[in-house]
Amino acid sequence: MAEIVVKILECWYISHDVKCFRVEKPKGFKFIPGQATDVSINLPEWKDKLRPFSFTALNEWPFLEFIIKIYDDHNGVTHQLGKTNAGAELILHDTFGSIQYKGPGIFIAGGAGITPFIAIFRELNKQKKLLPGNALIFSNKTAHDIILAEELAKMLGPAFINVFTRQGVIGFRERRIDREYLVETIRDFSQHFYVCGPEIFVKDIVELLLNLGATAETVIIEK
Ligand SMILES: Cc1cc2nc3c(=O)[nH]c(=O)nc-3n(C[C@H](O)[C@H](O)[C@H](O)COP(=O)(O)OP(=O)(O)OC[C@H]3O[C@@H](n4cnc5c(N)ncnc54)[C@H](O)[C@@H]3O)c2cc1C
User: Where in the chain do CATH 3.40.50.80 domains reside?
Assistant: First the structure.
């Protein structure tokens, strides 16, 4: 198994519980947008605790980037990452992932499940003409929880659709992504669907999409 030690160059909170880490990029390091790597913190008591995180930078950037939701409800790796700052080291392990761009479609993300899509959108946005034809349905508890709201709105325009499960926000839908919502929102179930988020979110949405006419080949998830 690969083990690459990288220094954190800078890190900061981009929302109340999500932290962005920019880390050294090993020479020649490449990934496919949508892929992830197992990461651990290079400290004796943490180096063997590996957790997967998606690459969010563009390959051409001179650093790697991770956008990480910090869980402070128990002493896990992300809680420790919340206390970890520039100058500390992370260990990157193997790169993997089955989420890759296969063509225009609907991206459906729950919370931190947006991260593999950030890399894909940034790449498509760079190649200007490729982003139109794609849409994002992004489910969060409240507006407060949207990761990179401004950047996503700029890249996707009206194709950036927010769904809030908890908070009434004027101008936004307040509901869950259920069958009724998908039928109302999506006209064509033969296009690609990219789904990422908590396990139960992915399971429920994939089941609904398959029932509505999508196929196992056109629904792309992390396996
Ligand atoms: C391929 C892949 C890519 C991913 N990419 C990203 C990414 O880019 N960014 C990102 O933020 N996340 C990403 N994730 C999710 C991320 O890996 C997890 O959030 C992370 O592993 C959590 O690690 P942890 O040690 O802090 O929590 P864990 O201990 O692994 O616990 C995870 C969950 O269980 C709950 N939990 C566990 N134990 C307790 C306890 N004792 N008390 C209370 N709650 C508990 C936590 O609240 C949390 O919801 C990705 C996951 C996969 C599979």
Answer: 105-220
